């Protein structure tokens, strides 16, 4: 009996959308899980993940591909969808992998004092942190930052710094060797690619190949 085509659910990073996936070339059925507005400024991450998981059928074997903060949600959605397999791209599995400033924010509440519009106002600083090149990559980053919803960013950062992690969860990890936002991630990843935090764009061809190979190696059997 022939295996069914792979099914991918893609979750973008904080403030990003389907534009970061535009260069992927995946064989199979592809869906983007779009961010939902938080129901309240204090909506718990697990409650939010349950709402996001509603778009993924319980009985469907699939791949959850999460980029950066999207990887956090992929790990949480997978807790509710046992047939899902997780791939983390430029992401992390627990607070020990975050930079020291996250520990400071968790202890002091510093993140509440920083305006979420800071990076959109400083696109060149954001360019350095994300490790993107001039030209089309930089223009894409600027557009994404300009379109970011400040309320969502504020909520997400608050959830991120308090997240206890899912360090025991099985996940395939892909990370850039020069990631300035999450520099510890490369050492914990099975696939290390040259580039910074936005390798989902700059290394889309390699990531597409990895994802397609993973899907081929673990085919989805028809029900």
From TrEMBL:
Pfam family, one: Abhydrolase_6
UniProt xrefs under SUPFAM superfamilies: alpha/beta-Hydrolases
AB hydrolase-1 domain boundaries: 10-207
Gene3D superfamilies for this protein: alpha/beta hydrolase (3.40.50.1820)
InterPro entries in UniProt: AB_hydrolase_1 (IPR000073), AB_hydrolase_fold (IPR029058)
Annotated protein name in UniProt: AB hydrolase-1 domain-containing protein
Organism for this UniProt entry: Hymenobacter glacialis
Lineage of producing organism: Bacteria, Pseudomonadati, Bacteroidota, Cytophagia, Cytophagales
């Amino acid at each position: 009996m022939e295996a069914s085509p792979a099914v991918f659910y893609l979750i973008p990073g904080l403030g990003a959308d389907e534009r970061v996936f535009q260069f992927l070339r995946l064989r199979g059925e592809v869906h983007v899980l779009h961010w939902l507005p938080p129901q309240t400024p204090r909506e718990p991450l697990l409650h939010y993940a349950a709402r996001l998981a509603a778009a993924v059928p319980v009985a469907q074997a699939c791949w959850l591909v999460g980029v950066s903060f999207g990887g956090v949600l992929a790990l949480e959605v997978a807790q509710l969808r046992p047939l899902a397999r997780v791939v983390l791209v430029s992401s992390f599995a627990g607070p020990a992998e975050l930079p020291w400033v996250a520990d400071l924010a968790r202890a002091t509440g510093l993140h509440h004092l920083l305006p979420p519009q800071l990076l959109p106002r400083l696109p060149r600083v954001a360019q350095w942190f994300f490790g993107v090149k001039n030209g089309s990559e930089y223009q894409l980053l600027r557009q994404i930052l300009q379109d970011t919803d400040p309320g969502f960013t504020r909520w997400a950062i608050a959830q991120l710094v308090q997240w206890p992690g899912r360090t025991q969860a099985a996940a395939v990890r892909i990370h850039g060797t020069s990631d300035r936002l999450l520099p510890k991630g490369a050492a914990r990843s099975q696939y290390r690619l040259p580039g910074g935090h936005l390798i989902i764009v700059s290394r889309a061809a390699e990531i597409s190949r990895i994802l397609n190979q993973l899907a081929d190696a673990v085919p989805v059997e028809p029900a």
